[in-house]
Structure formats: structure tokens, C-alpha cells
Amino acid sequence: MVYNIYVGMIEMNNIVLYEPEIPGNTGNIMRTCVATNTKLHLIKPLGFSLDDKHMKRSAVNYLENLNYEVYENYEDFLSKNSGEFYYFTRYGKKPHTSFDYSDNKSNIYLIFGKESTGIPKEILKNNLDRCMRIPMSDRVRALNLSNCAAIVIYEVLRQQNYNDLLFKEPHKDEDFILN
């Protein structure tokens, strides 16, 4: 299924969720995708229904603006997409900031695994040079999936000078806070 709701700039940045399990995480990521003009790719099986009330609560009322696609499996996803693929895993040895994402004319895919087990090692072993990890202390194994997705997409956007995203709240004049 393809849901190209957002009409405007061509989506070059993409967040990919491999078999996501928690609707609240996916809902939060949906909101982040709308906020950043990022396409979301969901690879089945999903651990929830897309109309799950918890997911909708996290995504709030932004779902109608979401550009997303659902795939039957990882092979289906690969057959329909091409570009630069980056894999986020606790096994990664490079920080997410070590890559150059500044070419805003290429399709960038940020791939995150399921909450319980991550991306399968069979996928990772063929892409070791593109495996990365968000630096953190030795007291936690991983950050929350939706936090990771937000951290990384904003690093990509920072390197792309934020691709025309707004730096002020829409529909507010410059002095609204003074009134």
C-alpha cells in the first residue's frame, strides 16, 4: 500500500521501520515524519493495526498529512526503493554523525529495527559499513525507537540546512509573543 498524502516537495529523506512492534513509537515517528517532510516506510509484520487507538493518539491529528508506504517484507521494500541506506543498530561502531547526508538530491533511507530485537543480523552483516549507533553511556542498551528516529532525521536535516522547514510557528506574526 502507498499513501502519498503530502503533496509538495519530493521526499528524499526516508525513515524505515523494520517490523515495528509498539504503536506509540510508530505514532510518534509518524508525527516526526510529518514535521520533517520525511516519508515513512513500514515493513510487515506490524505489531499493531494501523488504526490502533494508541498509535493515533501519538500521531495526534497529523495522519492525514503523512506520506507512508507499507511493505510485505524487507525484500519487497528493497525491490521498490533505491538510494543510500543507513542501518541503526546497537552493533554499529560508527556514530550517526559520521556520515555525510548533505546531498539533498539523493534518497536517504534511515533503517531502524523492531523494538525487541532490532534489525536481523542477516541484513546487517551485508551492510556493516553502513551500520551505526547513537552514542550513549554504558548504562543503557538503546534509546527509545521514536527518540532515535528524531535524533537521526534532524542530523540529516541539519546537514541539509533543514530543507525549507520553518524556523517559526506558522500563522503567527513576528511579535505574537509580545502581544
Walk me through what this model shows:
This protein is of the alpha/beta class. 26% of the residues lie in helices and 19% in strands. It has 5 helices and 8 strands. It has helices at residues 23-36, 53-59, 74-80, 121-124, 145-159, and strands at 2-4, 13-18, 39-43, 67-71, 84-88, 94-95, 108-112, 131-133. An 8-stranded mixed beta sheet has the order 1-4-3-2-7-5-8-6. β3, α2 and β4 (67-71) form a beta-alpha-beta unit. It is globular.
Concise synopsis of the structure shown:
With 179 residues, the protein is of the alpha/beta class. It has helices at residues 23-36, 53-59, 74-80, 121-124, 145-159; strands at residues 2-4, 13-18, 39-43, 67-71, 84-88, 94-95, 108-112, 131-133. It contains five helices and eight strands; from the N terminus they run ββαβαβαβββαβα.
Which bin fits the share of residues in helices? 25-40%
Task: Return Rg in Å.
Answer: 16 Å
Residue runs with pLDDT of under 50 for 5 or more positions? 1-9
| Structure class | alpha/beta
Order of helices and strands: EEHEHEHEEEHEH
